[in-house]
Automatic annotation (TrEMBL):
Residues 311-859 form the TonB-dependent receptor-like beta-barrel domain. This is TonB-dependent receptor. The keyword Translocase does not apply. Residues 1-18 form the signal peptide. It is a multi-pass membrane protein. It comes from Mariniflexile soesokkakense. Gene3D superfamilies: Carboxypeptidase-like, regulatory domain, TonB-dependent receptor, beta-barrel domain, TonB-dependent receptor, plug domain. It is found in: Cell outer membrane.
Length: 900
């Protein structure tokens, strides 16, 4: 580390020493109340600060002569005040009037300088804490669904969000858009396919989230192919602040949150704290008898120095949330259908599978399916910033994390019979059409009714422990010339991660009801043999199907220059990164464990890990380059453009290990090329952005998991390597057309297509009637088709009213039609999710207040589908049933927020 610092010092040793002027002051509203978090910026430079709880700010500047100070805060008109910078300390008193726009907000992500969103040459969206609270956002999808160019699905309901960015192909999760807290990713980004939102949840300690899209997002920190999503924590300051929030909702939800922050010790200690957390109990958005619960605690301790600060962040989470996958729907309308009891079937998760157990060659297996998606673990992060003087600044971040994530997936309609079937049809599907002496009963002993339908289901338990050590260090030097100011940054990013991916599976037979019971089934076959097809609801004791160990080490170096000219901002940057990754695949085999007379082989034989492994290690290097420019046309309008070449390393789990040290195909970066141009406009009543973009992605590697049925279950079935192209445009606006009343929203068009498509079968077997042979390669069949699971049009429309006492909103998230598969055989209709909400704030003395509010998610209770069956090889559109994942139904939330 000392050698690195000396190298950077030598690199910039030719620079001169400039005089500095201290600028300080206070920001208040027109009633005299201090404004916390106001952005103060010296126009034409990167010098600035944000105001503390008392509205105070202070920073140093290198410019001289007559200058302009810009002060902005969301919901207030931006103010520009003239100052004369002469080396003597300057103190100003600022009063802001209500009004203003979000483009004046300072961006903190994917930049090394202090600048507003309006002055950044790329696309940026942000949401503040107040908006998150009023939204009652209970998933990552809730939060980012309103961002232009983003398709967000609640992958399993309220957990494991799938995020697609600007028409880029993805198997889901957040491959191309890492989730960060305070500038560093949560756990092992790029190691496996686990969605980042399972490791941490938003609470009252978050002051906002920023999503920076475009090429510059690849340069800093973890780097990103398409965008960085960064949650920014509150840190304590001069005044104490406390928040208690209570949220209740239908279906048994109760959640309480808190935040407290302030100064530690005496008035001159310069040490501050912030603590936040929540405790939740919930029957789930769909109540099927498996309630979930959890808690999270986060905190930070900040020490301010004369020239910098050190902040220690930490988090601990132990949270369970049920995971919801697809179910059979009406084949024509694709709406939910009625079950055996005449009631609408919303899901097929069954509480009866909780704690199912059976013997394996390695001992007893007991299903944790009742826990759903269960995450337990922590991270600790240190963040050091220091001004060395003479326009030198250093930043350093270090984080260690350790999590265990268990995905308990109840995959309804996944087996041999994937649609509701009568008893006779079910037996015929298994080859027992001539069966006699049929005994079909529910677990309680009641016989099935004559018209009762049954269905196969699959249970998948995925155990994924992961540890991660990450660090970033950078040095920034400001060079202020007569015509241009350079802000040169050199930095390094290091991360070392390791994890496991262990899978156990079993299949069950259940009734087709909204709260299905398990079914026992035995009979005499045509040969006179007694057959037990389902015992205690089990049809297959599949056992262990995967034992995988993954490692990843990444080392990156980056160099950037953010330049300021009279009317121009120009950013250039370069990054080079090496990734070493390994995958150990444990061999599995089946063994006869049960010898009961009549049991089918699928019930007698159980899979287990043999202890043998095959292992391979790979190493590859990628590089990124970005050029961006913004031109200030006038005080209200800016034009910008950027071009970049980036990369994404294929997930370690995609390494196809043939034998020790040998892999199939190449392991190399997926390269992405982006070009974007746009406009940003803002005045006191209206702000808007427009962007047109073009992206190409080369050598995208993805793994499709398929249901092979039988004793195999769901495994990695097909590896695809694709090239894609997208031409798109995004527009966003915020218009205050009357006092306290505004109309805002966005619209996205993305024309995307596959330009190459190669598919390799990873495992032989029969899937949906298709015989797959390992090693078979299909090339080019889907070229020219649209990407699956991504519409061509997206829009969000929202109406807001807020007079500081009463607030209300109504919004619509509109998604166009999309294809379920890359072959474009199955088209899913578009849908709209409506939300409304309102609140009333009661003021008390000493700035205390209580807000009582409510919101309703999916007011229209749309039957829209977020996807079809992701584990099917093909899906028919002509059968009586269609397997798909409906969006979540209507839900009402009520909350009380007390701030003191």
């Amino acid at each position: 580390m000392k050698k690195t610092i000396l190298t950077f010092l030598c690199l910039f040793s030719f620079t001169a020493i400039f005089s500095q002027t201290e600028i300080s002051g206070t920001v208040k509203d027109n009633s005299g109340v201090p404004i916390t978090g106001a952005n103060v910026l010296l126009i034409g430079s990167t010098s600035g600060a944000t105001s503390d709880f008392d509205g105070n700010f202070s920073f140093t500047a290198n410019l001289s002569g007559a200058q302009k100070l810009q002060i902005s805060y969301l919901g207030y008109e931006t103010k520009v005040q003239a100052v004369n910078v002469s080396g003597s300390a300057i103190k100003v008193q600022i009063v802001l009037q209500e009004g203003g726009n979000a483009l004046d907000e300072v961006v903190l992500t994917a930049t090394s300088t202090f600048r507003s969103q309006k002055e950044s040459p790329n696309s940026i969206s942000s949401l503040k804490a107040q908006e998150l609270t009023r939204l009652n956002a209970n998933s990552q999808a809730d939060i980012v669904a309103s961002i232009p160019g983003i398709v967000a699905d609640g992958g399993g309901g309220e957990a494991a969000t799938n995020i697609f960015v600007r028409g880029l192909p993805s198997g889901g999760q957040n491959d191309f858009s890492p989730i960060q807290y305070d500038g560093l990713t949560l756990a092992g980004y790029g190691l496996s396919s686990t969605a980042g939102d399972v490791y941490a949840k938003v609470d009252q300690g978050v002051k906002g989230v920023e999503f920076v899209r475009g090429g510059s997002s690849i340069l800093y920190g973890a780097g990103s192919t398409a965008g960085v999503m960064n949650y920014i924590s509150k840190t304590g300051d001069t005044n104490d602040e406390n928040i208690i929030n209570l949220e209740v909702a239908d279906k048994g939800r109760v959640k309480t949150e808190f935040y407290t922050g302030g100064k530690v010790g005496s008035d001159d200690s310069n040490t501050y704290y912030a603590l936040s957390g929540w405790v939740r109990k919930d029957d789930g958005p769909l109540d099927f008898g498996l309630p979930s619960k959890g808690f999270q605690f986060r905190g930070n301790l900040k020490k301010k120095f004369d020239n910098g600060s050190f902040t220690l962040y930490t988090q601990f989470i132990d949270d369970k949330a049920q995971f919801l996958l697809g179910l059979p729907l009406d084949g024509d309308s694709r709406e939910r259908i009625t079950g055996n009891d005449g009631k609408t079937v919303y899901q097929l998760n069954s509480s009866h599978v909780r704690n199912i157990s059976f013997l394996t060659p390695a001992g007893e297996y007991r299903s944790p399916i009742g826990d759903g998606v269960h995450t337990k673990g922590f991270y600790v992060q240190g963040d050091f910033n220091y001004d060395l003087g003479n326009d030198w600044k250093i930043k350093s971040k270090v984080k260690v994390s350790d999590y265990v994530n268990d995905f308990g997936l109840y995959v309804a309609a996944n087996g041999t019979v994937n649609a509701p079937a009568s008893l006779s049809d079910y037996l015929a599907k298994y080859g027992y059409a001539g069966a006699t002496n049929i005994n079909a009963s529910y677990m309680g002993g009641t016989a099935l009714g004559a018209n009762d339908r049954i269905i196969d289901n699959l249970n998948v338990d995925r155990n994924r422990p992961i540890t991660d050590l990450t660090g970033e260090f950078s040095v920034t030097k400001k060079l202020a010339g007569d015509k241009v100011e350079h802000n040169i940054t050199a930095g390094t990013y290091l991360t070392s991660s390791e994890g496991e991916d262990n899978n156990w599976q079993f299949s069950t037979l259940s009734a087709f009801n909204n709260a299905p019971q398990l079914v026992n089934l035995s009979f005499t076959d045509a040969g006179g043999n007694n057959v037990i097809l389902s015992q205690n609801g089990l049809t297959r004791r599949i056992g262990q199907t995967a034992a995988t160990f993954l490692t990843q080490d990444r080392t990156a170096f980056y160099f950037t220059d953010e330049m300021i000219l009279d009317k121009w901002r120009i950013d250039v940057g370069f990054r080079i990164e090496n990734q070493k990754a390994s995958r150990e695949i444990g061999s599995t085999a089946t063994k006869q464990v049960y010898t009961d007379a009549g049991l089918t082989p699928a019930l007698q034989n159980v899979g287990y890990a043999t202890g043998a492994y095959r292992r391979a290690e790979v190493s590859t290097t990628g590089f990124a380059a970005s050029l961006a420019a913004l031109y200030k046309i006038n005080d209200k309008l800016n034009a910008y453009a950027n071009a970049s070449k980036g990369y994404f390393f294929p997930l370690a789990r995609s390494i196809n290990v043939i034998s020790n040290g040998v892999i199939a195909g190449d392991y190399k970066p997926e390269n992405i090329y982006q070009v974007e141009t746009g406009l940003k406009y803002a005045n006191s009543k209206f702000s808007g952005t427009f962007a047109g973009y073009y992206t190409t992605l080369v050598d995208r590697v993805a793994i499709q998991r398929l249901n092979y049925g039988g004793s195999i279950g769901t495994v990695d079935g097909i590896k695809t390597v694709q090239n894609t192209r997208t031409i798109g445009m995004e527009a966003s606006w915020d218009w205050e057309f009357a006092d306290n009343l505004s109309f805002n929203g966005n619209f996205t068009y993305q024309g995307h297509e596959l330009t190459s498509d190669e598919r390799t079968v990873l495992q032989s077997g029969t899937v949906d009637g298709n015989v797959l042979v390992e090693g078979t390669v299909t090339n080019g069949a889907n070229v020219g088709k649209q990407l699956r699971r991504q519409p061509t049009t997206l829009s969000t429309l929202r109406l807001d009213y807020d007079n500081k006492k009463f607030d209300a909103f109504a919004s619509a998230n509109i998604r166009g039609a999309q294809f379920n598969d890359d072959a474009n055989l199955v088209e899913l209709d578009g849908f709209t999710v409506l939300r409304i909400g309102a609140g009333y704030t009661i003021g008390f003395e000493d700035s205390k207040n209580l807000r009582l509010g409510f919101s309703i998610y999916n007011l229209g209770d749309s039957q829209g589908l977020s996807e079809g069956d992701p584990r099917a090889f093909t899906q028919s559109t002509t059968t009586d049933y269609f397997v798909g994942r409906p969006i979540l139904p209507r839900r009402a939330f009520f909350n009380a927020t007390f701030t003191f």
